[in-house]
Amino acid sequence: MALPRRDPRDPGPEYVAFWQERHLCTLTTLRPDGTPHVVPVGVTYEAEAGVARVITNKNSRKVAHVQAAGPEGARVAVCQMDRGRWATLEGRATVRTEAPLVEDAVRRYAERYERTPAPNPDRVVIEIRVDRALGRA
């Protein structure tokens, strides 16, 4: 059965609303040997811009995996589920360190997850340019 694919810049109101609800997500990156590395994360999705964001520590394995792919970025996926509803965003990820981008990502995270993360001078953003949206939301 084919997966339900959506336009990542116009996935529909129910899909966008699902990404605004408070859900734990996963981020999948690839290790150097090609095996998947799946970790729990918080994700924000700006559908109209086609961008998903994950805030994290610059020394994390997920950041190392993205950076190892080079300046074009790494193919990644983020996913969330709630019973029969699920949504996956796929795209090319890069690591952003610019303070205004990190602050914006923290603000978006605080809005979605209803809590502001503790200050972290080593915080960076994994920015995902979404090119595929899948799911049933």
How would you explain this protein's 3D organization?
The protein is an alpha+beta fold and 137 residues long. It has one domain: Pnp Oxidase, Chain A (Roll). The chain is built from three helices and eight strands. Strands 1, 2, 3, 4, 5, 6, 7 and 8 form an eight-stranded antiparallel sheet that branches. The longest helix is centred in the C-terminal third of the chain and has 15 residues, at 99-113. The two termini are 17 Å apart. The mean pLDDT is 95.
Summarize the structure.
With 137 residues, this protein is α+β, with helices and mostly antiparallel strands. The protein has helices at residues 13-20, 61-68, 99-113, and strands at 5-6, 25-30, 36-41, 44-46, 51-57, 74-82, 85-96, 123-136.
Proportion of β residues? 35-45%
Largest sheet: 8 strands, antiparallel
Mean pLDDT: 95
Tally of individual domains = 1
Number of strands: 8
Using the alpha-carbon principal axes, give the shape: globular
What distance lies between the first and last C-alpha atoms, to the nearest angstrom? 17 Å
Give helix and strand order, one letter per element, not per position.
EHEEEEHEEHE
Helix content: 10-25%
CATH class: Mainly Beta
| Discrete helix count | 3
Low-confidence stretches: none
Structural class: alpha+beta
* CATH architecture call: Roll
